[in-house]
Specification:
The protein is mainly alpha-helical. 69% of the residues lie in helices and 0% in strands.
């Protein structure tokens, strides 16, 4: 159970906002939605922003989900991991890579040397680690990521994915939301 109560279906009602969220979720509210509904302005802005980040970017689904999974592990957001690990696999990631990503916490450096990641994946993973754990990204790490994603739009989108899912995970962790909620 989260640290603040989940909004019930009765409390949520059937407003246009709630209907839009349910429609996006296949008919029901997820645990995160039930928390977001504590603030309608947040809930209203959340779906369009996060929907675009999940579905409308030029960056590949594999890079998006790779970053999302890495952020989830680094921040201890199991709820986020459970939702995005299958999407990483569906986007072309592998089970052995997911197992290696799980090693990011508590030892990011060990995970960064895993043979299951090629040079491009290690460069992009280092970017996630630096951005998530220290916020700043070294010039060497930035240049290595730019070599993988040389298009300015895609490197910018990768940064936004990392930042956005850090926001998500920090909410989930602060409110003690678990994968089975």
């Amino acid at each position: 159970m989260a640290r603040i109560p989940y909004i019930t279906d009765a409390q949520a009602g059937e407003s246009e906002l709630v209907q839009a969220i349910k429609s996006r979720r296949g008919g029901s509210l997820a645990a995160l939605d039930r928390l977001l509904l504590h603030s309608h302005p947040i809930a209203q802005g959340w779906a369009p922003l996060m929907g675009r980040i999940r579905d409308d970017l030029a960056i590949s689904a594999k890079w998006r989900e790779f970053a999302m999974c890495a952020v989830a592990v680094l921040n201890g957001a199991e709820y986020e991991w459970v939702h995005h690990a299958p999407l990483f696999l569906a986007a072309g990631g592998r089970e052995d890579q997911l197992a290696a990503l799980r090693q990011l916490r508590p030892d990011p450096e060990r995970a960064l040397t895993e043979a299951v990641f090629d040079a491009d994946e290690r460069a992009m993973l280092r970017f996630v680690v630096e951005s998530t754990l220290s916020v700043s990204v070294s010039e060497a790490t930035f240049k290595a990521a730019q070599a993988v994603l040389p298009d300015d739009q895609q490197i910018f989108e990768y940064i936004v994915v990392i930042a956005s899912y850090n926001m998500v995970s920090r909410i989930l962790v602060a409110l003690d939301v678990h994968a089975d909620d």
